[in-house]
Amino acid sequence: MTGSFDQIAVHFDRFAELVGGPLDEYLASVLPDGGGERAVDLGCGTGRHAALLAAHYRQVLGVDVSVPMLQLAMARRGLANVTYQQRDLRQVRADTDGTFDLVVSAYALHHLEDLDQALWRIRELTAPGGRVVLIDNVAPTPAVPRRWFLGEAVRTLGSDLLRRRRPPTEAWELLRLNTDPAWLDHLTTDRFLNPTQFTQQYGQVFDASVTGFHPPNTDDDAQDPCHAGQTPVVAVPLTDQGRLARGRGAGRGRCAARPGPADPTCRTGEAPHRQVR
Ligand SMILES: C[S@@+](CC[C@H](N)C(=O)[O-])C[C@H]1O[C@@H](n2cnc3c(N)ncnc32)[C@H](O)[C@@H]1O
Q: What CATH number has the domain bearing residue 223?
């Protein structure tokens, strides 16, 4: 697993508040009409998406390994129908937790070394007719050097100011967050798939025909390829994350067929977990 979020929870939450609006909108746009019974957010962090799902699902489970992230989730986004648990997302399994009408994971799966196995388990976790929404970063090289993040931070500031994409105080605040040494230490330990690897790995599990992903951009809902029972799998290039303007789509994945029968190799034993209060 790559770097922990324990020391950067507050930082992350503010960063996500500043740049996460488009992803929230995207997520809301791919939820099935009428919501459902049970949803799970794997690697829920500070609970932004769990809270969003709570308006559409009767019960929401958010799991994360980081206690500081979960404490913020509870403090800022504690809701009666959301349960937060400190667990490795790979321990959430159909045989112990049952299945979910919606499985969401955003920017968490690149932290796993055993992605393939985790994807099969996610497929198994999904109830018949349910939906999976998986979102993660991709980059041309597995490790991205510090100087790239610094350059990107400055470029983001420039275009935020030039194009008036956010108030100047927020633009400068984002620069400070993007160039914070502890944040950069974390980002440089991350390891990313490139777009081809992403397509192959996710496509193997969810649909062999997934071949490409739309870059974050589109305002054109008419081209939304997602229909009930399908799986939006979205690769967000690192270059786009900090630049997204509020009110625009965070990215539109090509939709793969909904999960098929469970993979038998995914059946393993129960694992302990801890409720966060
Ligand atoms: C970049 S944050 C994203 C948080 C949230 N999904 C969001 O989009 O706001 C990644 C989160 O994944 C969590 N994480 C990483 N590996 C995990 C694992 N194996 N099991 C559960 N959570 C994990 C981290 O602790 C962190 O909170």
A: 3.40.50.150
